[in-house]
Design a protein that fits this description.
The protein is α/β, with parallel strands linked by helices. About 40% of the residues lie in helices and about 30% in strands. The longest helix is centred in the C-terminal third of the chain and has 22 residues. The N and C termini lie far apart (about 70 Å).
């Protein structure tokens, strides 16, 4: 291979054979528009192979998904008119293209070690948050070249674990082409952006996600980044959870909404008849304050630290049972390893076809009687 035409033909060949892993374009011919790199990789959207282009500018990223033929035309244009260097990575080889100022083309070919490339390729396929995703750069998780920033490694692992969980939960419900999600207490939006990108760009769904957040500076930040990423169906609003009125909710998410804000979010989901509720409870003051001064007979509650942890479990058990009382099947499991945070419990409610509401009510009453609890806040909201 010794010419630009042959390099272009090789790209077409590996794309047709589905052997393409990634193409990176570097050294732009013209720097006036701020475009620094372009990353191209194959994605499957709605069962069809497409080429995803991530255009990396100094101040923003733009992602476009093209049909294969249109993508190959764009690649040829980039090589002829816009970039001097390119790296084509396949399952077993790397092809490096360099063009001098005088137009001389140099192409080098090297074999990848089987274990190294297979591992790299498998990781790329298995990661639900690929490192070249534009939002990861915008949110400071990767650098301009798509390399993970070391101090953000834990956050990146959390994102992929979260997407793994959501992938299973959402698609076990049966695939819907249009989804309306609300993320209550979205914060800086790491997981909100990740879920939108996963559902919209990688899964090809028509999805609308609204992030609810009290801190105006975070709302402004997230809306700006969503616009820069081209995420038209993602928006953030400055609002209290209890004031949110939209009833169009397929999936409600509330991760670490403090204390009774968790209950406010669960109540909104129940009243909107959301098909899926995903909650990571945070703080459990309401029940603990209610039983303060009441003599408990359980010896586990003699010591303050045990009492605190015990009533966290009691509170979340009541929440799970209240979901069951209102027609949901509930599950509680560990979200991330407790080496990262002790607040690692995830409570999930899925609309049930066979609710056992009376049994749930009896269990709620028994728990309240055993621990001298007058009410759990979610009961009064619903």
């Amino acid at each position: 291979m010794n010419s630009l035409e042959e390099y272009i033909e090789k790209i077409s060949e590996v794309t047709d054979s589905e052997d393409l892993v990634k193409i990176t374009f570097s050294k732009p011919i013209y720097k006036s528009n701020g475009l620094q790199n372009i990353f191209v990789r194959p994605v499957v959207l709605k069962g069809a192979l497409k080429l995803s282009f991530n255009y990396r500018y100094k101040t923003k990223d733009i992602t476009k998904n093209n049909e294969v033929n249109a993508g190959l035309v764009e690649i040829e244009s980039l090589l002829r008119e816009k970039f001097k260097n390119a790296t084509l990575i396949t399952s077993d080889k790397t092809y490096q293209l360099m063009q001098s100022k005088k137009g001389k083309v140099t192409i080098s070919e090297s074999s990848n070690s089987t274990s190294e490339v297979q591992s790299s390729h498998d990781k790329e396929k298995n990661k639900r948050a690929p490192l070249d995703a534009p939002y990861l750069h915008e949110l400071g998780i990767t650098d301009a070249s798509g390399v993970l920033i070391p101090k953000m490694a834990d956050k990146y692992r959390q994102i992929n674990k979260y997407l793994e969980i959501m992938d299973h939960l959402i698609f076990s419900q049966g695939k819907k082409e249009i989804l309306s999600l609300v993320d209550m207490g979205s914060g800086k939006g790491y997981l909100t952006f990740a879920l939108y990108d996963f559902l919209w760009r990688l899964k090809g769904l028509s999805v609308k996600i609204t992030g609810i957040e009290l801190r105006q500076e975070l709302v402004d930040f997230c809306n700006q980044k969503a616009q820069q990423c081209g995420f038209e169906g993602l928006q953030f609003v400055n609002q209290r959870i209890e004031e949110y009125q939209d009833q169009d909710i397929d999936i409600l998410i509330a991760l670490h909404a403090c204390d009774t804000a968790t209950d406010d979010a669960l109540a909104k989901a129940i009243m909107a008849k959301a098909q899926l509720i995903v909650c990571a409870p945070c703080c459990h003051k309401q029940v603990r304050q209610q039983v303060k001064g009441k003599k408990q007979t359980n010896p586990l509650l003699k010591y303050g630290i045990f009492q605190e942890r015990h009533f966290e479990m009691v509170t979340d058990t009541l929440r799970a049972l209240i979901l069951e009382q209102h027609g949901y099947e509930s599950k509680v499991f560990e979200f991330v390893s407790n080496e990262h945070t002790r607040k690692n419990i995830m409570l999930v409610g899925s609309k049930s076809e066979k609710p056992n509401q009376q049994e749930a009510k009896e269990k709620i009453d028994a728990l309240k009687k055993e621990y001298l609890i007058d009410y759990q806040y979610l009961e009064r909201l619903v």
